[in-house]
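Query form — protein Peptidoglycan/LPS O-acetylase OafA/YrhL

QUESTION: What is the three-dimensional structure of this chain?
INPUT:
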Amino acid sequence: MRIERHDLTSTGAGTHRGAGSPTPSRRVPAPRAATVLPAPRGGMPRPGHSAPAHRAARQGAQPHRRPPHLAEAFDPRDNAIGVLRLALVAVVAVAHGVQIAAGRAPVIGSAGVGELAVDALFVLSGFLAARSYLRLGSLRRFAWHRFLRIVPGFWACLLLTALVVAPLVALLSGRPLLPLLTGPDSAASYLGANALLSIQQPGIAGLPAAGHEPGVLTGPLTTLAAGALCCALLAALGALGLLRRRIRLVAGLTGGLWVLTALAAAGFPLLASGAALRLPLVFLLGALAWLLARHIPVSGVLAAACVAALSAGTHLLPDYRALAAPALAYLLLWLAVRLPLRSSPSWDASYGLYLYHWPVQQVLVLLGATSLTLPGFLAFSLGVALLLAGASWALVERPALAGRGAAWVEFHLPGTARPQPQPHIRRQEPAAAPARRARPPRRTGESARTRLARARSGEYVGRHAAPQPPDA
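ANSWER: The structure tokens for Peptidoglycan/LPS O-acetylase OafA/YrhL are given below.
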């Protein structure tokens, strides 16, 4: 907009004054700045208008934003691992229920559904066990925590099976109760043979005699010994310092197990079968994920690729782990971080459900619960097993876990205890000595070079020039 400048005086009506009187000046208002209207939502400014600087910056090329790492995305107090574990144990229970009631095991391609779920549980166990060892920093404390988490609930399940389930199965089968006490496979021998987690006697006096899984009262408990051995392997690696300073060796060990699994799947004769390598491999994959959490991105694209790898491995290979074992581990940890579902940390029924679903299903088969159709039988057996799992958590597992902080675990003999650092006590630093007062420079009226030369020759005494002898 062009503004014409006019004269400051005017002779029009109402502005003329007499001679000698000053003529006031009339200010011309400054031109207004053009109003800048915001650009439309399409991103381009309207014709004749300019877009604001901040909006123009937003409309520019956005910088590439990297996905967060697993160490950044995983919150130990806010994650979906509890929900995942309960869901996976429920999948194991459903697979076993189909096997007990219908005599067939559900499969996906070449992999059993229950087998996949157990592998997933071992991945999560390895992840949590590695975190627990590094957080505790003590081999004895780690072993004590693992003992309290596994053994008390297992012993309670053995007692309940020997004293309640076996007599009930004998009564429902029309068998006498005396062989349960005096036979070669009695309840007492059942308790003694299986007390150390290794299932040496799966049943009591051949019970149950009918059904699709005769003579087995402790089907899923056979994996508990493998879990304990995996924890012992992790503790040995930690005692050697490999979990903190030599992570590459742990990665090499895991990669070696993966290669051996692939060779076993390809038919090469090995000292260890693929079944023996299965659970240590997935356990170490979970532990390695925690050790390398700062280098593992949490990406939905990678999770989708892992789903594709799992599908290919289960449908194209006799052992999916030869191709997709790392994919299973990554997918589980991605779900643990990204799923919005959360479980209460004060209530964990997953372990109890894993322990009790098999004997509950065996008893329900003898009671004729299979007449409810297969989905009804599975739902009913899950409900009863969940009740027992809740009782196990409230009466056995949670009271046992309350003893994790026992002081005797770190007991040392007199004279052998090592001093523990106390980072909360601040060391008292010695007081600094007062700074010495700098001596003022000599004022002799000479240049610095001359002053230095005379100082070296000893012509100065203190701050004054020494008297010189007269010339000869």
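ADDITIONAL NOTE: The chain has a mean pLDDT of 82.
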